[in-house]
Amino acid sequence: MGKIVGVSLLVLLFLTGCAPVVKNPTPLSQHSIQTSPYTEQEYRIQVGDQLDIKFFYNPELNEQVTVRPDGRISLQLVREIMTAGLTPAELTDLLTKKYAKELKMPEVTVIVRSFGGHKIYVDGEVTKPGMFSLIGFMTVLQAISQAGGMKDSARMSEVVLIRRGTDNKPLTLQVNAQKVIDGTGMSQDIALKPFDIVYVPKSPIANVNVWVDQYIRKNIPISTGFGYYLNP
């Protein structure tokens, strides 16, 4: 009976090591990835962004505002403005038109001071999984570092990156973080985009250890010698 348990564990270890983390992930070598998150399209204002609204000829109207959860901001003279989804240039044009009714020369400038609406998510075998702000340029390894780094149980060669593809369909990419760490594949450490999810899976041996702990050690008395044997 003990031999059967030992053989079962070996089979489980083999199968776990061979099983992919996700179904049909796209290797980076087969997918064109932008190395910079700012080359695709002009930035659009998000909920939580902090904006500086500056008036060249009327500095008394200058304000620093935060985009509310409803996507609006409140300003003097023109009241509430729907802001989320507009580019800074589009908001500048809109404010110029609205303030033209109140001012003779409404020279307005919109500056995005901080990007509160841009978040990324790190989960799996990291020390502190959770949501993090995407401020400026951040790569997969930098995001994992923000989450306290990978645990010893991490499968570094098959980190999964999930992002919004065309038509908001999820795109799943496989990143070999081990090659980044040892310097043999720095191109794997791609730049993140808003709402990307970085998932670090368990290593095969970690999965087996969890299975053994849950289904054998806690339920079946076993010896600590070579192999796993049931007590008579």
Walk me through this protein's architecture:
The N terminus and C terminus are likely disordered. The chain folds into 2 domains: 113 residues, Outer membrane lipoprotein wza fold like, CATH 3.10.560; 65 residues, wza like domain (wza like fold, 2-Layer Sandwich), CATH 3.30.1950.10. A hairpin with a 3-residue loop joins β4 and β5. The longest helix is centred in the first third of the chain and has 17 residues. The protein is of the alpha+beta class. The N and C termini lie close together (10 Å). It is 24% helix and 23% strand. The chain has 5 helices and 11 strands; from the N terminus they run αβββββαβββαββαβα. The chain is elongated and about 70 Å long. α1 packs antiparallel against α5. The strands form 3 sheets. The chain has a 6-stranded mixed beta sheet, covered by helices on one side. The chain has a 3-stranded antiparallel beta sheet with strand order 3-2-6, with helices on one face. Strands 4-5 form a two-stranded antiparallel sheet.
Let me know the largest β-sheet: 6 strands, mixed
- CATH topology assignment of the largest domain: Outer membrane lipoprotein wza fold like
Number of domains: 2
Alpha plus pi helix count: 5
Would you spell out the secondary-structure blueprint of this structure?
Layout: H1 2-18, E1 26-27, E2 50-55, E3 63-66, E4 72-75, E5 79-82, H2 88-99, E6 108-114, E7 119-124, E8 130-133, H3 140-146, E9 159-164, E10 170-175, H4 177-181, E11 197-200, H5 204-217
Parallel strand pairs: 1-10, 7-11
Antiparallel strand pairs: 2-3, 2-6, 4-5, 7-8, 9-10, 9-11
Helix pairs in contact: 1-5
